Amino acid sequence: MSNPQISGGTMSMYTGFTRLCKGITVVLVGGHIVVQILPSALSYLALIPAKTIPFAWNLITAGYTEQSIYGLVISTIGLLFVGKLLEPIWGSREFLKFIFVVNFLTSVCVFITAIALYYITTQEIYLYMPVSGFQGVLSGFLVGIKQILPDQDLSLLKIKAKWLPSLALLVSIIISFFTTESASYLPTMIFGTYIGWIYLRYWQRKPETKRRGDPSDEFAFSTFFPEFCRPVINPLATIFERMLCGRRSEMSDESGGYTLGSTTLPGSDPIEASRRRERGARALEERLAAERLAATGRADKTEENATENV
């Protein structure tokens, strides 16, 4: 009697994936197959800073080209499961826009960093190391979860969802001390996290309010760090925020306002940010309830079939 219910509950985890996420998964699988069959294609699809000027398209294609089967598995699983949560809340168009912007700007940042490191160290490895993979966008997705469901408890990890981006980066940095391949993914994850936060903090348009971004203190840059670090992080974040987003931060009338460090600027609307998190939590509860209902229905149907067979 319990086996059908367990089977139904397990199956419900693997259903409900959006069509857009399935389509992007096909792109990731296709990119991996291409570089496995034609290794020379990696020179045209991956981000190789020395070749980016003539092959500028690799700023886009690099994010969809997985070189290893492990990276492909992690990327597809992360895309399908996180996309099932974020896309219904953001909408398909905004979800696709987020992927494109984070992927492209992450590649641009990695390119600029590689060129700078080459001129500083004169080591050509920074110019010719192929960098590719979907991990930058996945890191941005974790920032989206932090924004929408910050206080959601993750029983498996014993932490709240708001710490997912920080934990992912911390683990990646620790692993980088024990592997030589970290240069191919760590910068992408760091920039993917930061660009994802920049997008959600300042650029994401809210059609219901005609405003952009999330100015709440709960989504400030310092919240990625432990409490004892924030007195140091806040002044630094304020400097970089004024350098990179100063003009946009001044447009409080148009965008609804932002915060510099821990100070809320005029026009900010933390109530809207709170409502957004409530919608995220409600959407998650509705999806879980629907999956439980579907699992129960399948279990009842299986039990009826078993009874008829007997």
From TrEMBL:
Cellular-component GO terms for this entry: Golgi apparatus; membrane
Keywords of the record: Membrane, Transmembrane, Transmembrane helix
Transmembrane spans: 20-48, 68-86, 98-120, 126-149, 161-179, 185-203
Predominant localisation class: membrane
Taxonomy, superkingdom: Eukaryota
Subcellular compartments: Membrane
GO biological process: retrograde vesicle-mediated transport, Golgi to endoplasmic reticulum
Residue span of region Disordered: 253-280
Membrane protein topology class: Multi-pass membrane protein
Family matches, as PANTHER family: PLACENTAL PROTEIN 6, RHOMBOID-LIKE PROTEIN 19
Descriptive protein name: Rhomboid 19
